[in-house]
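Incident review: delayed structure delivery

Summary: a single-chain prediction request sat in the queue longer than the usual turnaround. Root cause was a stuck worker, restarted by the on-call engineer. No data loss occurred. The affected request and its eventual output are reproduced below so the record is complete for anyone auditing the incident later.

Affected input:
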Amino acid sequence: MRPKTPSFDALIQNQGICLSTEGRSQNTIDWYASNLRRFLKFLRERQLPDEVQDIGVAEARSFIFYLQNEVTRWENSLYTRDKTRLSPFSVQGYARTIKAFWSFHIDVLSYSHERALRMDSW
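Output delivered after worker restart:
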């Protein structure tokens, strides 16, 4: 029987603590957490797997596709109405965040799962 995997939210908090001990700024930690929470929100809204051990490359790629094709720069702004898509640099930031999160937590959780995200699988 496989041990219970911590929740996605708990792992986000854990990564924040680890980044803090590495001397990262609070803005950087908040940026990582915000990107990961957006990924989690995307998974839940589309009823995709949201348990860490069940999320794979297909879910990550779906999220990146969503960012490239459906998200606009100022979608939550009350004052700016701009239908411009996110820049490739912004989308790449999300991809880097997800890769770093999984690289770190695969080592921390020490689980081997065929769906686990690996940097070389992108």
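Verification: The mean pLDDT is 82.
Action items: add queue-age alerting; document worker restart procedure.
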